[in-house]
Amino acid sequence: MALILVPFKYKDDLLKHIPPMFLNSEDGSEDYSWFLNAPGFTTFRVNVKKYKVQDLVDIIDKQFIEETEAQNKHPPKIFIHKIINDCIVVSRWKHDCRENLCEYDVIVDVACANAVLRGADIFAPGILSISTNAKVGDKVNVFADLERNCRRGFNKKFTGKSLLIGTGTVKVSRNELFKNNATVRGVGVEVDWNLSGIPKIKLPEDSGLLQNFPSIVCGHMFKNITGNVLDMCAAPGNKATHIATILGNKGEVIALDKTADRVSKIGKLSERFGLTNLKYYLYDATKCIMEDMSESNANHLGPPFMKESFPAVLLDPPCSALGQRPSLMNNISSSQLKSYVFLQRQLLRSAIKALSKGGLLVYSTCTITLEENEEMVSWALKQFPELSLKRVEPSIGYPGLQESSLTKNEREMVSRFGLPRGSTVDEDTIGFFIACFNKNV
Fold it and tell me: Is position 233 annotated as part of the catalytic site?
């Protein structure tokens, strides 16, 4: 993708939080291409409870062969990851430039545009505007509204700052989309080409899900656990369902989230995967541990929980999400970022209370700042002497950053993903961080 924009609304406020390696080009100038480009690989985590990984590889391979023959393109590579054996990896289509634009345009919001660049179709809620004469079945250019200036239902030629991200076929009429502020669900435009070259993957709904590679790795931290695992900020349930699948009949996952709509997503995903060892609750994880034993739940089934009642805890807290790629525009400010740090510390306190002696605590984020990653680890080790760092296994990713206050040995025990160097599936990922702690006996 050509570098044509700065992907931060509050650039000057935010850049002091971003490690320089994510910004500097070889000549020393600012380079935002890492943020603007999708990772070079799509990863699909297989629901091994219901499907064999190789069978799904064969299905995808057949789809690509048919598409290659129809469009005379070179097919993406597809393979099973050599270590993470429930992960299917798919490379990009070879880049093809679209010189012949369509007659009609569709304008989509930034969140929708980011999804299109990861291989998604365009769902109706993401459409802001569509050419007035475009009909169902017409081909359209797809533009991202980069500065959020296009109002929903706009009926003229949009002249705001935009980026061509793909082309597609209209599936829902303009009238159906916008008449009387209608709420339409489902695919509004079926994408046939996107700028990133990331392919679409069509598989049975219960066969698994598209999941970022580091998130899949995170689930494998729990493969040797027996007993219950607490997932403190679980929605939409991607990691919780993965851990439940890995545990099998060895334990349960107790998943929490404090937003009702998000908790319902955990339930739907669990049902889709056919899981019986995942329980989910609407609850604020910062308050999930009893401070007073008189609070005790009579049936002991849900939160609040007794102290030190979980042999393993996953804390994947709300974060600044600066590792998500592509990100055509990020609206976070420095003050918002600092508020995440405060919340993460609150959640860590609860996680440590929940963790039994000898237990495993996995802390992960999808961001790249030192404050939310290495410095959070450093803070936890100083605040809680009962904690010790455990090397991340499987050992995939890069060590922690030298700019942090962690020692060399501590940096080598944590894992960073997505640093702007390297071109394999293990390296070219979203920005992500994993640290593992043991609670000393």
Answer: no
